[in-house]
Fold this protein.
Amino acid sequence: MNSSQSNESVASVLKAGIGANNPVLVLVLGICSALAVTGTITTTLVMGASLMIVTGLSCLMVSALRHTIPHTVRLMVQMMVISVFVILVNLYLQAYHYGVSKALGPYVGLIITNCIVLGRTEGFALRHGPWLSFMDGLANGAGYALVLLCISVIREFTGAGCLMGHRLMPDWFEPAMFMRTAPGAFITLGIVIWIIRGIAPAKEERAD
Amino acid sequence: MGTNSFIMIFLASMFANNILLAKFLGMCSFIAISRNMKTAFGMGAAVTAVTVCTALLNYLVYSGVLMVGSRFFPETDLTFLSFLVFILVIAGFVQLLEMILERFLPALYFSFGIFLPLITVNCAILGVNLFMIEQGLKYSFWQTSAFALGSGGGYWLAICLMAGIRKKLEGADIPKPLRGVGIAVIITGLIAMAFMGFTGMAEG
Protein backbone atom coordinates (compact mmCIF):
# COMPACT_ATOMS: atom_id res chain seq x y z
CA MET A 1 0.00 0.00 0.00
CA ASN A 2 1.13 3.57 -0.47
CA SER A 3 2.52 5.51 2.43
CA SER A 4 0.08 8.43 2.48
CA GLN A 5 -2.41 6.66 4.70
CA SER A 6 -4.23 9.70 5.99
CA ASN A 7 -5.46 10.75 2.54
CA GLU A 8 -7.04 7.42 1.77
CA SER A 9 -10.74 7.84 1.38
CA VAL A 10 -13.38 5.17 1.12
CA ALA A 11 -13.76 5.89 -2.59
CA SER A 12 -10.06 5.47 -3.37
CA VAL A 13 -9.95 2.23 -1.40
CA LEU A 14 -12.94 0.89 -3.32
CA LYS A 15 -11.43 1.87 -6.63
CA ALA A 16 -8.05 0.29 -5.87
CA GLY A 17 -9.59 -2.99 -4.76
CA ILE A 18 -11.78 -3.44 -7.81
CA GLY A 19 -9.56 -1.87 -10.44
CA ALA A 20 -5.96 -0.78 -10.08
CA ASN A 21 -4.96 -3.32 -7.44
CA ASN A 22 -7.37 -6.06 -8.40
CA PRO A 23 -6.24 -9.02 -6.30
CA VAL A 24 -6.71 -11.68 -8.97
CA LEU A 25 -5.52 -9.98 -12.15
CA VAL A 26 -2.87 -7.57 -10.96
CA LEU A 27 -1.52 -9.23 -7.86
CA VAL A 28 -2.37 -12.83 -8.83
CA LEU A 29 -3.70 -13.88 -5.45
CA GLY A 30 -6.40 -16.38 -4.70
CA ILE A 31 -6.46 -18.00 -8.11
CA CYS A 32 -6.85 -21.49 -6.66
CA SER A 33 -10.50 -20.99 -5.98
CA ALA A 34 -10.84 -18.68 -8.97
CA LEU A 35 -10.39 -21.74 -11.13
CA ALA A 36 -12.19 -24.36 -9.12
CA VAL A 37 -15.57 -22.68 -8.69
CA THR A 38 -15.99 -21.04 -12.10
CA GLY A 39 -17.57 -24.01 -13.86
CA THR A 40 -21.06 -22.54 -13.47
CA ILE A 41 -22.22 -18.99 -12.77
CA THR A 42 -24.35 -19.91 -9.77
CA THR A 43 -21.49 -21.40 -7.75
CA THR A 44 -19.30 -18.47 -8.75
CA LEU A 45 -21.80 -15.91 -7.45
CA VAL A 46 -22.11 -17.73 -4.14
CA MET A 47 -18.35 -18.06 -3.80
CA GLY A 48 -17.80 -14.39 -4.68
CA ALA A 49 -20.39 -13.25 -2.17
CA SER A 50 -18.96 -15.52 0.53
CA LEU A 51 -15.47 -14.20 -0.03
CA MET A 52 -16.69 -10.58 0.07
CA ILE A 53 -18.45 -11.16 3.37
CA VAL A 54 -15.54 -13.04 4.93
CA THR A 55 -12.92 -10.52 3.79
CA GLY A 56 -15.00 -7.52 4.86
CA LEU A 57 -15.89 -8.85 8.29
CA SER A 58 -12.41 -10.26 8.98
CA CYS A 59 -10.84 -6.91 8.13
CA LEU A 60 -13.36 -5.16 10.38
CA MET A 61 -12.63 -7.52 13.26
CA VAL A 62 -8.84 -7.50 12.89
CA SER A 63 -8.83 -3.73 12.56
CA ALA A 64 -10.96 -3.33 15.68
CA LEU A 65 -8.57 -5.60 17.60
CA ARG A 66 -5.39 -4.24 16.08
CA HIS A 67 -4.10 -2.53 19.23
CA THR A 68 -4.65 -5.58 21.42
CA ILE A 69 -3.22 -8.33 19.17
CA PRO A 70 0.37 -9.11 20.25
CA HIS A 71 2.68 -8.74 17.29
CA THR A 72 4.28 -12.17 17.65
CA VAL A 73 1.09 -14.20 17.39
CA ARG A 74 -0.79 -11.92 15.00
CA LEU A 75 -0.84 -14.44 12.12
CA MET A 76 -2.41 -17.06 14.35
CA VAL A 77 -5.02 -14.59 15.62
CA GLN A 78 -5.86 -13.51 12.06
CA MET A 79 -6.26 -17.11 10.93
CA MET A 80 -8.64 -17.76 13.83
CA VAL A 81 -10.72 -14.67 13.07
CA ILE A 82 -10.93 -15.68 9.41
CA SER A 83 -11.84 -19.28 10.15
CA VAL A 84 -14.64 -18.23 12.50
CA PHE A 85 -16.26 -16.19 9.72
CA VAL A 86 -15.74 -18.97 7.20
CA ILE A 87 -17.42 -21.42 9.57
CA LEU A 88 -20.40 -19.06 9.90
CA VAL A 89 -20.70 -18.70 6.11
CA ASN A 90 -20.38 -22.45 5.64
CA LEU A 91 -23.06 -23.21 8.23
CA TYR A 92 -25.38 -20.68 6.60
CA LEU A 93 -24.87 -22.24 3.16
CA GLN A 94 -25.43 -25.74 4.50
CA ALA A 95 -28.63 -24.66 6.21
CA TYR A 96 -30.25 -22.55 3.49
CA HIS A 97 -28.53 -23.37 0.16
CA TYR A 98 -27.68 -27.02 0.52
CA GLY A 99 -27.34 -27.74 -3.21
CA VAL A 100 -24.80 -24.98 -3.79
CA SER A 101 -22.96 -25.88 -0.60
CA LYS A 102 -22.68 -29.46 -1.86
CA ALA A 103 -21.44 -28.28 -5.27
CA LEU A 104 -18.78 -26.05 -3.74
CA GLY A 105 -17.64 -28.82 -1.42
CA PRO A 106 -14.42 -28.08 0.44
CA TYR A 107 -13.77 -24.90 -1.52
CA VAL A 108 -15.80 -22.84 0.96
CA GLY A 109 -13.48 -24.00 3.73
CA LEU A 110 -10.53 -23.12 1.56
CA ILE A 111 -11.46 -19.43 1.81
CA ILE A 112 -9.43 -19.62 5.04
CA THR A 113 -6.23 -20.08 3.08
CA ASN A 114 -7.20 -17.71 0.30
CA CYS A 115 -4.30 -15.32 0.14
CA ILE A 116 -6.60 -12.36 -0.52
CA VAL A 117 -8.17 -12.48 2.93
CA LEU A 118 -4.94 -12.80 4.88
CA GLY A 119 -3.27 -10.33 2.54
CA ARG A 120 -5.89 -7.68 3.35
CA THR A 121 -5.97 -8.26 7.10
CA GLU A 122 -2.17 -8.34 7.33
CA GLY A 123 -1.44 -5.63 4.78
CA PHE A 124 -4.25 -3.17 5.38
CA ALA A 125 -6.48 -3.81 8.38
CA LEU A 126 -3.62 -3.90 10.89
CA ARG A 127 -2.78 -0.27 10.08
CA HIS A 128 -6.15 1.32 9.34
CA GLY A 129 -9.42 2.10 11.10
CA PRO A 130 -12.30 -0.41 11.19
CA TRP A 131 -14.63 1.36 8.74
CA LEU A 132 -11.98 1.88 6.07
CA SER A 133 -10.74 -1.69 6.52
CA PHE A 134 -14.25 -3.05 6.14
CA MET A 135 -14.70 -1.16 2.86
CA ASP A 136 -11.26 -2.28 1.69
CA GLY A 137 -12.16 -5.90 2.39
CA LEU A 138 -15.45 -5.56 0.54
CA ALA A 139 -13.75 -3.88 -2.42
CA ASN A 140 -11.13 -6.59 -2.75
CA GLY A 141 -13.78 -9.25 -2.44
CA ALA A 142 -15.77 -7.51 -5.16
CA GLY A 143 -12.72 -7.27 -7.40
CA TYR A 144 -12.23 -10.99 -6.97
CA ALA A 145 -15.91 -11.75 -7.59
CA LEU A 146 -15.95 -9.68 -10.80
CA VAL A 147 -13.02 -11.52 -12.34
CA LEU A 148 -14.51 -14.86 -11.37
CA LEU A 149 -17.79 -13.85 -12.92
CA CYS A 150 -16.04 -13.04 -16.23
CA ILE A 151 -14.29 -16.41 -16.26
CA SER A 152 -17.41 -18.32 -15.32
CA VAL A 153 -19.49 -16.58 -18.01
CA ILE A 154 -16.92 -17.62 -20.63
CA ARG A 155 -16.67 -21.15 -19.29
CA GLU A 156 -20.38 -21.81 -18.86
CA PHE A 157 -21.28 -20.26 -22.20
CA THR A 158 -18.75 -22.18 -24.24
CA GLY A 159 -18.76 -25.30 -22.10
CA ALA A 160 -22.51 -25.81 -21.83
CA GLY A 161 -24.11 -23.18 -24.09
CA CYS A 162 -25.94 -21.85 -21.02
CA LEU A 163 -26.00 -18.82 -18.76
CA MET A 164 -27.21 -19.47 -15.19
CA GLY A 165 -28.49 -22.83 -16.37
CA HIS A 166 -30.66 -21.40 -19.19
CA ARG A 167 -29.79 -22.78 -22.59
CA LEU A 168 -29.10 -19.87 -24.94
CA MET A 169 -27.44 -21.44 -27.93
CA PRO A 170 -29.36 -23.14 -30.76
CA ASP A 171 -29.44 -26.92 -31.00
CA TRP A 172 -26.62 -27.27 -33.51
CA PHE A 173 -24.19 -25.86 -30.96
CA GLU A 174 -22.04 -28.62 -29.57
CA PRO A 175 -20.83 -27.63 -26.07
CA ALA A 176 -17.07 -27.70 -25.75
CA MET A 177 -16.59 -30.13 -22.88
CA PHE A 178 -12.97 -29.07 -22.72
CA MET A 179 -13.92 -25.72 -21.19
CA ARG A 180 -15.50 -27.44 -18.21
CA THR A 181 -12.38 -29.40 -17.36
CA ALA A 182 -9.33 -28.24 -15.41
CA PRO A 183 -7.13 -27.38 -18.42
CA GLY A 184 -9.93 -25.26 -19.90
CA ALA A 185 -10.05 -23.28 -16.67
CA PHE A 186 -6.30 -22.68 -16.63
CA ILE A 187 -6.20 -21.57 -20.24
CA THR A 188 -9.23 -19.28 -19.87
CA LEU A 189 -7.58 -17.55 -16.91
CA GLY A 190 -4.33 -17.22 -18.85
CA ILE A 191 -6.11 -15.58 -21.76
CA VAL A 192 -8.11 -13.25 -19.50
CA ILE A 193 -4.85 -12.12 -17.83
CA TRP A 194 -3.33 -11.65 -21.28
CA ILE A 195 -6.21 -9.46 -22.49
CA ILE A 196 -6.34 -7.35 -19.32
CA ARG A 197 -2.59 -6.77 -19.27
CA GLY A 198 -2.65 -5.98 -22.96
CA ILE A 199 -5.25 -3.27 -22.38
CA ALA A 200 -3.80 -1.93 -19.14
CA PRO A 201 -0.15 -2.93 -18.73
CA ALA A 202 0.95 -3.59 -15.16
CA LYS A 203 3.11 -0.86 -13.73
CA GLU A 204 6.14 -3.06 -13.27
CA GLU A 205 6.71 -6.75 -13.10
CA ARG A 206 8.61 -7.92 -10.07
CA ALA A 207 12.24 -8.43 -10.96
CA ASP A 208 12.80 -12.15 -11.20
CA MET B 1 -5.90 -55.21 -6.61
CA GLY B 2 -8.83 -53.07 -5.46
CA THR B 3 -9.13 -49.35 -5.90
CA ASN B 4 -8.70 -48.89 -2.15
CA SER B 5 -5.29 -50.45 -1.82
CA PHE B 6 -2.44 -48.25 -0.60
CA ILE B 7 -0.68 -48.14 -3.95
CA MET B 8 -3.83 -47.35 -5.96
CA ILE B 9 -4.84 -44.48 -3.69
CA PHE B 10 -1.31 -43.17 -3.83
CA LEU B 11 -1.14 -43.26 -7.64
CA ALA B 12 -4.65 -41.90 -8.13
CA SER B 13 -4.06 -38.90 -5.87
CA MET B 14 -0.67 -38.22 -7.42
CA PHE B 15 -1.61 -38.43 -11.11
CA ALA B 16 -5.30 -38.67 -11.91
CA ASN B 17 -6.54 -36.36 -9.14
CA ASN B 18 -3.41 -34.25 -8.91
CA ILE B 19 -4.06 -31.69 -6.18
CA LEU B 20 -2.69 -28.87 -8.29
CA LEU B 21 -3.64 -29.73 -11.84
CA ALA B 22 -7.07 -31.26 -11.28
CA LYS B 23 -8.19 -29.63 -8.03
CA PHE B 24 -6.50 -26.23 -8.51
CA LEU B 25 -5.06 -26.08 -5.00
CA GLY B 26 -1.74 -24.47 -4.11
CA MET B 27 -1.66 -22.30 -7.22
CA CYS B 28 -0.38 -19.16 -5.49
CA SER B 29 2.84 -20.73 -4.27
CA PHE B 30 3.08 -22.77 -7.46
CA ILE B 31 3.21 -19.66 -9.64
CA ALA B 32 5.39 -17.66 -7.27
CA ILE B 33 8.03 -20.26 -6.43
CA SER B 34 8.44 -22.21 -9.67
CA ARG B 35 11.06 -19.82 -11.04
CA ASN B 36 14.04 -22.02 -10.36
CA MET B 37 14.48 -25.71 -9.85
CA LYS B 38 16.24 -25.62 -6.50
CA THR B 39 13.65 -23.60 -4.63
CA ALA B 40 10.84 -25.49 -6.37
CA PHE B 41 12.31 -28.77 -5.18
CA GLY B 42 12.65 -27.45 -1.61
CA MET B 43 9.10 -26.16 -1.56
CA GLY B 44 7.76 -29.45 -2.92
CA ALA B 45 9.61 -31.42 -0.27
CA ALA B 46 8.39 -29.16 2.53
CA VAL B 47 4.78 -29.29 1.32
CA THR B 48 4.86 -33.08 1.05
CA ALA B 49 6.28 -33.52 4.55
CA VAL B 50 3.82 -31.12 6.16
CA THR B 51 0.85 -32.52 4.24
CA VAL B 52 1.48 -36.09 5.38
CA CYS B 53 2.08 -35.16 9.02
CA THR B 54 -0.87 -32.77 9.37
CA ALA B 55 -3.29 -35.06 7.52
CA LEU B 56 -2.48 -37.88 9.91
CA LEU B 57 -2.69 -35.60 12.97
CA ASN B 58 -6.00 -34.20 11.80
CA TYR B 59 -7.27 -37.70 11.06
CA LEU B 60 -6.65 -38.61 14.67
CA VAL B 61 -8.25 -35.40 15.96
CA TYR B 62 -11.27 -35.80 13.69
CA SER B 63 -11.90 -39.45 14.50
CA GLY B 64 -11.04 -38.99 18.16
CA VAL B 65 -12.88 -35.80 19.05
CA LEU B 66 -14.84 -34.03 16.34
CA MET B 67 -17.08 -36.51 14.52
CA VAL B 68 -20.24 -38.17 15.75
CA GLY B 69 -19.37 -41.52 17.33
CA SER B 70 -15.82 -40.35 17.94
CA ARG B 71 -13.64 -42.06 20.49
CA PHE B 72 -13.80 -39.50 23.27
CA PHE B 73 -17.01 -37.54 22.66
CA PRO B 74 -19.30 -39.98 20.82
CA GLU B 75 -22.54 -38.07 21.49
CA THR B 76 -21.57 -34.60 20.35
CA ASP B 77 -21.20 -33.43 16.76
CA LEU B 78 -18.29 -31.00 16.70
CA THR B 79 -17.66 -31.22 12.97
CA PHE B 80 -18.54 -27.54 12.50
CA LEU B 81 -15.29 -26.78 14.30
CA SER B 82 -13.16 -28.74 11.84
CA PHE B 83 -11.99 -25.70 9.81
CA LEU B 84 -10.76 -23.93 12.93
CA VAL B 85 -9.15 -27.03 14.42
CA PHE B 86 -7.47 -28.04 11.17
CA ILE B 87 -5.91 -24.67 10.52
CA LEU B 88 -4.70 -24.46 14.12
CA VAL B 89 -3.16 -27.93 13.88
CA ILE B 90 -1.43 -26.95 10.64
CA ALA B 91 -0.16 -23.62 11.98
CA GLY B 92 0.94 -25.20 15.24
CA PHE B 93 2.66 -28.08 13.50
CA VAL B 94 4.55 -25.80 11.14
CA GLN B 95 5.70 -23.67 14.07
CA LEU B 96 6.81 -26.74 15.99
CA LEU B 97 8.59 -28.23 12.99
CA GLU B 98 10.41 -24.96 12.50
CA MET B 99 11.63 -24.95 16.11
CA ILE B 100 12.69 -28.60 16.04
CA LEU B 101 14.57 -28.24 12.77
CA GLU B 102 16.29 -25.09 13.94
CA ARG B 103 17.48 -26.81 17.11
CA PHE B 104 18.50 -30.22 15.78
CA LEU B 105 18.99 -30.00 12.00
CA PRO B 106 20.16 -26.46 11.30
CA ALA B 107 21.37 -27.35 7.79
CA LEU B 108 17.95 -28.61 6.76
CA TYR B 109 16.34 -25.66 8.54
CA PHE B 110 18.25 -23.16 6.48
CA SER B 111 17.48 -24.95 3.23
CA PHE B 112 13.75 -25.05 4.11
CA GLY B 113 13.89 -21.76 6.01
CA ILE B 114 11.82 -19.36 3.97
CA PHE B 115 9.25 -21.92 2.84
CA LEU B 116 8.03 -23.15 6.18
CA PRO B 117 6.11 -20.03 7.30
CA LEU B 118 4.53 -19.80 3.83
CA ILE B 119 3.19 -23.31 4.12
CA THR B 120 0.58 -22.46 6.75
CA VAL B 121 -1.42 -20.56 4.15
CA ASN B 122 -0.80 -23.04 1.34
CA CYS B 123 -4.25 -24.13 0.21
CA ALA B 124 -2.98 -27.52 -0.90
CA ILE B 125 -2.38 -28.60 2.68
CA LEU B 126 -5.70 -27.47 4.10
CA GLY B 127 -7.25 -28.84 0.90
CA VAL B 128 -5.93 -32.35 1.49
CA ASN B 129 -7.27 -32.20 5.03
CA LEU B 130 -10.69 -31.06 3.85
CA PHE B 131 -10.92 -33.59 1.03
CA MET B 132 -10.12 -36.24 3.61
CA ILE B 133 -13.36 -35.51 5.48
CA GLU B 134 -15.48 -34.59 2.46
CA GLN B 135 -17.77 -37.61 2.70
CA GLY B 136 -17.18 -38.43 6.33
CA LEU B 137 -14.02 -40.40 6.85
CA LYS B 138 -13.86 -42.57 3.78
CA TYR B 139 -10.32 -43.82 4.30
CA SER B 140 -8.67 -45.74 7.10
CA PHE B 141 -5.55 -44.37 8.77
CA TRP B 142 -3.24 -46.08 6.28
CA GLN B 143 -5.31 -45.13 3.28
CA THR B 144 -5.24 -41.52 4.50
CA SER B 145 -1.46 -41.64 4.66
CA ALA B 146 -1.38 -42.94 1.07
CA PHE B 147 -3.73 -40.16 -0.01
CA ALA B 148 -1.68 -37.46 1.71
CA LEU B 149 1.61 -38.82 0.41
CA GLY B 150 0.23 -39.03 -3.12
CA SER B 151 -1.22 -35.51 -3.01
CA GLY B 152 1.96 -34.00 -1.62
CA GLY B 153 4.03 -35.93 -4.14
CA GLY B 154 1.77 -34.73 -6.94
CA TYR B 155 2.39 -31.13 -5.91
CA TRP B 156 6.12 -31.81 -5.73
CA LEU B 157 6.10 -33.35 -9.21
CA ALA B 158 4.06 -30.54 -10.75
CA ILE B 159 6.12 -27.70 -9.27
CA CYS B 160 9.38 -29.32 -10.45
CA LEU B 161 7.97 -29.84 -13.96
CA MET B 162 6.92 -26.24 -14.03
CA ALA B 163 10.32 -24.98 -12.85
CA GLY B 164 12.00 -26.97 -15.62
CA ILE B 165 9.72 -25.57 -18.30
CA ARG B 166 10.08 -21.99 -17.06
CA LYS B 167 13.85 -22.36 -17.20
CA LYS B 168 13.56 -23.33 -20.86
CA LEU B 169 11.23 -20.39 -21.50
CA GLU B 170 13.73 -17.78 -20.39
CA GLY B 171 15.02 -17.28 -23.92
CA ALA B 172 11.63 -17.48 -25.59
CA ASP B 173 10.05 -14.46 -27.24
CA ILE B 174 6.67 -14.21 -25.52
CA PRO B 175 4.21 -11.34 -26.17
CA LYS B 176 4.78 -8.77 -23.45
CA PRO B 177 1.36 -8.83 -21.72
CA LEU B 178 1.57 -12.61 -21.52
CA ARG B 179 4.94 -12.73 -19.80
CA GLY B 180 5.21 -13.94 -16.23
CA VAL B 181 1.90 -15.08 -14.82
CA GLY B 182 -0.09 -15.31 -18.04
CA ILE B 183 2.18 -17.79 -19.75
CA ALA B 184 2.67 -19.72 -16.50
CA VAL B 185 -1.07 -20.28 -16.18
CA ILE B 186 -1.41 -21.37 -19.80
CA ILE B 187 1.49 -23.82 -19.45
CA THR B 188 -0.14 -25.19 -16.34
CA GLY B 189 -3.23 -25.77 -18.47
CA LEU B 190 -1.18 -27.72 -20.98
CA ILE B 191 0.43 -29.84 -18.25
CA ALA B 192 -3.03 -30.44 -16.80
CA MET B 193 -4.20 -31.61 -20.20
CA ALA B 194 -1.38 -34.14 -20.30
CA PHE B 195 -2.29 -35.31 -16.81
CA MET B 196 -5.90 -35.87 -17.88
CA GLY B 197 -4.55 -38.89 -19.71
CA PHE B 198 -4.23 -40.60 -16.32
CA THR B 199 -7.94 -40.26 -15.58
CA GLY B 200 -8.95 -43.73 -16.69
CA MET B 201 -6.31 -45.26 -14.48
CA ALA B 202 -7.99 -44.26 -11.24
CA GLU B 203 -11.26 -45.93 -12.16
CA GLY B 204 -9.67 -49.12 -13.47
